## 1
Amino acid sequence: MAESFRDFEHTGWADPGVCTSYDENFSSLTTQSIGAVLDAARVSAGTRVLDVATGAGYAAGAALERGAHVTGGDFSPEQVRLARQRYPGAKFHECDAGNLPFEGATFEAVVSNYGVLHFPDPDRFFREAFRVLKSEGRLAFTVWDVPRDAKLFGAVLGAIGTQGSLDVGLPAGPNMFLFSDPAVCEKALSAAGFKDCVVTKVSQTWRPSSGDQLLKAVKTGTVRTRGTLIRQRAEALKVIDEAILAALAPFRTAIGYEVPMPAVLTAATKP
């Protein structure tokens, strides 16, 4: 049987090496949007909040600092282990975003920081978020902006597309940038029952210290991109590396890189 997109993502994010590399190389970037996500979900002291695709618990930990009552969920046992270790004040569960193990009308806020782009069925997650939210509860989530603006993705996908191949037989999943489009977000959340959908952008900058760190992060701290790269012809890999660094050369500084990596933040309310 062909591997499903869900199983492909699960296998990748269950790998301790991938989780460690993501933490070391990308957490300084992905945590930049957490304050905006929690603000959009109106998380404050006493809020019952669910963090879906919690990873190592970054958003959950920030919600704890606000005095919220925090539950986190992730389908990766390794990420759940890391989250429990870091943030013992929250409750963490190993679970799928499309089948949340909670009663209806349990939470006042549901958040997901860069989780939606990993879900095999985002619409199912939106319906589950709606179900577990109380009336007037808030959903807020982030995804990456389109590759034209999120320059790392533009560089990597451009380099693979011109020097290698983007069609390497990975299991088919939703377009990674599907919810970078405000119209798509509004339509999907409305279909799930939400109202007052608002889509904004969050300005962010990724600051790897060197080209070597930049390439290592892409090759070891991701799942879809890593999977695409390891399936390239061996002779194409060095050329792809060179093309990535050439595309990002305008963002070099005296101490590394400053790569624009904006996020798209969507928030809505359950009536």
## 2
Amino acid sequence: MAIHFNQSMIAPIVTADGVTRQPLLNKQRVPDILFELDHLTISPGGNKALAIAPGELAWFQMIDGAAAMHTAGRKLSVTANHIGLLPPGFEGVLVSDAGATLLLTVVPDAEILDPAMSAGSPRFCIIDWQNEPVLQSEHDARKRIYIVTPKMFGTQAIRGEMIIYPPGTECPVHHHRGGAHFMFFLAGQGTCYAGPKQVMAVRPGDVVYYHDLEPHWVKGGTEGNLIFSEFFVPSAVATVWDDPSKVCTWIPTGVNYRGSRPSRIIEKHAHSHTADV
């Protein structure tokens, strides 16, 4: 059965330096999970130190507010549009003058999922997902934006996407083989389904975790776009469609989320072929 809850249901843990932590997904909730997911709130004037151990990998997704990443003598601005990869050995501090919220995910055994990391770690990288190419489903009005891929971040341990469901759109029933994934809902309303009977009404702040091999699908609501990010651990997760004729094929629109020229070009491809995007 899929795991479903809203971030607001998780009791906050107040830590030092003006940070509140909500542990969303971990081994206490999912014993065989391959990562840990936290929701962090940095209060105005607060800061969050980030130290990634050797063999680990982490990434963050800004949800609201703004902060500055201080690392290796550099200062980088991050806003609600930014996603960052934190490689093994990374050290930095997120400082927020006005306050910020973000998701932080740590993969403790990343080198097991991506043995190539032992020969050369992926680089520290921050991207603005609103500059990335928007892809349109061949079958309906759904849109996809790749935010973490092996080509972008240099690791096979993780993969991430932003997904947009206009009202009434629905994806075909499918499951994944070779790893689990979670969704974090950012805007709109809709419904997630799992197995033969599980129905989950979703809204902003909701988390849905699907186990390996668990059949599922998503449907947009009646008003406004349903927008969520989803992340797979590891990256090389196969997608299997109940009806092979409904395999999702994604067509480049030629624009980014802002409607202007995207940062790069992605060719038309089937959902299962994402290694080179």
## 3
Amino acid sequence: MMDVAAYLERIRYTGLTTPDLECLFQIHRAHLLAVPFENLDISQKRQIVCDEGAFVRKIVEGRRGGFCYEMNGAFAALLRSLGFRVTLLSARVPRAHGSEGPEFDHLALRVDLDEAWLADVGFGELFLEPLRLRTGVEQEQAGRKFRIVAENESLHVERTLRDGAWKREYSFTLRPRELPEFAAMCHYHQTSAESPFTRKRVCTIATAEGRVTLSDVKLIVTRGDRREEQLIESEQEWRDVLKSQFGVVL
């Protein structure tokens, strides 16, 4: 059984835990503000196994973050423990040249209340609160617009860029999935030279004002429209920044 109280303490959530829309929104935002998206185990050659219990232990007991399979896998377990109805969804992330990635490239969540919602705490920079799983509706959060578009028998999450253009973030279907189905792609993203996660170390977390990102040896802090960058000059400084900015100790 999951230690729900320990998980809620990890994400600094002190609100009500009734499985309703208000709780879903607050706990989703709390998770993104407390737990970083990071791929640091990959560069450390530490194997990540598709196991719900391992995901939860890493995030709660290890005070770490993770990438999509870990973050959304653990979050799904928390939501179920609170009484929410959750379905795992397979998503495909567009490649640099525009083609779609493979099935199980990304793990997202469907949460069913009076209507269906798309939840995702494991994509890095995206929406802070769940999106209505409804097509043809623009949904605004903190000055940014999102929408879900139906096309070619798939659904597509899109967001607006600064110039107003729409950018596709990932594509998915509503077919229910089980965690073991993601194992092969979880292994691929840890081992393949083609995976973005084997090419550089990344740790990033949302803040109330924007975002803090450590990308290899560059620290990037955004507050609204303001962006500051700082080069990290040593491995010790890199580890110090990990601890001070993200609470992560390797």
